[in-house]
Design goal:
Blueprint: H1 3-18, H2 24-35, H3 49-86, H4 91-112, H5 115-134
Helix pairs in contact: 1-2, 3-4, 4-5
Protein name: DUF2157 domain-containing protein
Organism: Sporosarcina thermotolerans
Keywords: Membrane, Transmembrane, Transmembrane helix
């Protein structure tokens, strides 16, 4: 195994040890295994690849979820605007549009495994059912 590859592996193991991603005795065993019993002093856990990937992942992760949330809100706003322009005063149609939005949020939450869409969909349906029951 090349020295660069060993250094990368040891760096990652030290990072795991410092951040308690694996039990300490496992990390010690792996470090001993890869260093063949010799202690590598010049390798730091701060050079690990995992924290660098996490930072990049977090930015794209947040951006993607913001797009999902904005898409849901834009769809809701467009639905309400269409209702206000063409069907104002028809509460039944408004209720149906809101229920369709909530149903879509619930389905997308389940398909994409997004808990906030699932919760929003269920909460919206509960509010709509409560509204219907109160106005009977």
């Amino acid at each position: 195994m090349s020295n660069q590859r060993k250094k990368t592996i040891i760096t990652e193991i030290k990072y795991w040890k410092e951040n308690k991603l694996l039990p300490e005795h496992y990390c010690d065993y792996l470090i001993t295994l890869y260093t063949q019993g010799e202690q590598e002093e010049n390798i730091n856990a701060s050079d690990a690849i995992l924290p660098k990937r996490k930072k990049k992942l977090n930015k794209s992760f947040i951006f993607l979820h913001l797009i999902y949330i904005l898409s849901g809100l834009i769809l809701l706003a467009v639905s309400l605007k269409v209702w206000a322009i063409y069907f104002e005063g028809q509460t039944t149609l408004l209720t149906l549009l809101l229920a369709l939005n909530c149903l879509l949020w619930f389905v997308m939450g389940r398909l994409l495994k997004l808990i906030y869409f699932t919760i929003s969909g269920v909460a919206g349906i509960i509010f709509i059912i409560t509204f219907i029951v109160m106005h009977l």
